[in-house]
Design brief:
InterPro entries: YjeF_N_dom, YjeF_N_dom_sf, YJEFN_prot_NAXE-like. The chain has six helices and ten strands; from the N terminus they run H-E-H-E-H-E-H-E-H-E-E-E-E-E-H-E. It has 202 residues and is of the alpha/beta class. It has a single domain, classed as YjeF N-terminal domain (Rossmann fold).
Length: 202
């Protein structure tokens, strides 16, 4: 995921002097992936800030949170409702709110308020696996409109409706029996890359 972020938004190309990225995490699996993403962004010299309003009691997710705290990644206590503050402070937002495991949770707080804010921001959004507010099969029905989509393991059906700037897939280490079971046709990963672009930048 950080590799795709670096490909989509290389440090020299960022419009702001500080390489700031806001990582917005939901309470379930996609939020945990967002925490891992934030940790790796810090390793690659970005300056992530995390908004994680509903923390999971899962021990593994708690460990991810602790790792981010130990790396001095700041956590926001609230998401500004003044959207311009987000536009001015960050180069991009990582959407790790809902993902493929979401059902009706987008209508519940704090997810509903987060999605309402993400729909209004002007800086680029990088969605992990399934853009928040999208149906995993049908696609968008009033959800956010990300600039970049990072599909995990393999693109989901809704990715056919993705119209953003770049689409990456991160699934190099998907076991062969899983590929066979679901009749997947993964792309070739060049060299040691863990992600591959499915759509060239526009």
């Amino acid at each position: 995921i950080p590799v795709s972020s670096r490909q989509a938004f290389p440090l020299p190309s960022l419009p702001r002097k500080q390489p700031t990225v806001l990582v917005v995490c939901g309470p379930a699996q996609n939020g945990a992936i967002g925490l891992v993403c934030a940790r790796h962004l810090r390793i690659f010299d970005y300056e992530p800030t995390i908004f994680y309003p509903k923390r999971s009691p899962d021990p593994l997710y708690r460990d991810f949170t602790t790792q981010c705290e130990k790396m001095d990644i700041p956590f926001l206590s609230y998401l500004p409702t003044e959207v311009q503050l987000i536009n001015d402070a960050y180069n991009a937002v990582v959407d790790a709110v809902l993902g493929a495991e979401a059902e009706a949770s987008e209508g519940r707080e704090p997810c509903a308020a987060i999605l309402a804010t993400l729909k209004l921001i002007r800086i680029p959004i990088v969605s992990l696996d399934v853009p928040s507010g999208w149906d995993v099969e049908a696609g968008s029905s009033g959800g956010i409109s990300p600039d970049v989509l990072v599909s995990l393991s393999a693109p989901k059906q809704c990715a056919r409706r993705f119209l953003g700037r770049q689409h990456f897939v991160a699934g190099r280490f998907l076991p062969y029996d899983v590929q066979k079971k679901f009749e997947l046709n993964p792309p070739e990963y060049p060299g040691t890359e863990c992600v591959v672009a499915l759509r060239a930048p526009r």
